[in-house]
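INTERNAL AUDIT FORM
Audit reference: QA-55
Scope: verify that the stored structure record matches its stored sequence.
Auditor: D.O.
Record contents follow.
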Amino acid sequence: MASNVTVQSVLEKISVDHLECSICTNRFRQPKLLDCLHSFCLQCLQELRQSQDPSGTKLTCPLCRCETTLKGSGVADLPNNFAFSALVEEVTMQEKLLEGQGSDIKCQACDEENQAISRCMDCDHFLCQECQKAHKRMTAMKSHKIYTLAQLQSGKIVYKSKLRDEVPKCCKHPDQNLNVYCNSCEQVICTTCSVLDHAKHSLTGLPEAAEKCKKKITEMVQKGESRKTEMSTTIEETSKSRKELDTMFANAQKKVSKKIQLGIPKIQKEEQKLKQEMDWIYQHRVRTFEAAQATNRKEVTQTKHKLEEVKQLMNQASCYKILELQQKLLHNLSELTRTQPQQVPEKLTFMDFEEDYYGASVFSVDMTSNMQGDGQPTGVCCDSDGSIFVAVCRCLTATDIEIQ
């Protein structure tokens, strides 16, 4: 019983994470793959196109806003996500078995609607008792693998969708399987096409071409994982720098208040103005930090999604499907490796209030930590007559005589 609960919990997680369309929130029905590697139901995408631009050649993904170019018959011509279709079928069947609905499963080998007691994995049919006996009697079917419903319910024997073994046919020669890869055209073709249309091209067998493709994609996935780690590290470092800025701003405010309490007239008079200027600079920097964090977090989320989708397709898709999607997968992975984390200049973390003496009583807010400025407000100071200055330079010193 405990093992059944575990299997059920795993199935539920798979369903939520991988099998539900984000548009209709139901399980995928004829899932189609966009250029960004997000998948949606065929009907959902058709309705989405109607709401966006019915006559246009572009379709915007509702999740990441990336555009997919539509060709031929539009949404219907988008690549099928057979991996998702197979997974939906397998999970749905396994759930039905686990939920104790085995008695509802009818024989698919006859028209008598008898209760099924087993399944032939070769015929992809559930069998009643009589059909199971017939299977075992017939010479052509004696070698077929037959498992009882109890074996399937135990989870030891996993139901496998026929979609995984389906060999696609050539669109030019419907009686021919696609079994050759043309390196010159980057296209999966049949034997007849290889002779008639690709005779002088570089050709490779499907398994060999798929292995080369997988190796190339695996290398790109590793680079993508490194970039994701780099971005996550940048997010952590930026968060730490933001906390340092918050601490320094709070301490600078306390220093101003402390000087006010000492009863210095000029500073006392300008306390509110000085603090407002400090707060303006602080808020400006906070926006810079938040913008960088938002950008990096979005990139990490998209990178994580794309890497997961690529890995799932690599693990579950057929040789044909991997080669068909090769350019789409490599393009997405290449985009990931080119994306650089958005850094926040270290100098924007520093903020302090200092008292300087250059022939006069001067109080300044040093924002630069002696670093070269970049055009952002880097400091604010109050001179001996109470005037406020905002610095956009390496350092600002205000005195009775001059400002350097």
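Auditor finding: record pair retrieved intact. The chain is about 50% helix and 15% strand.
Action required: none
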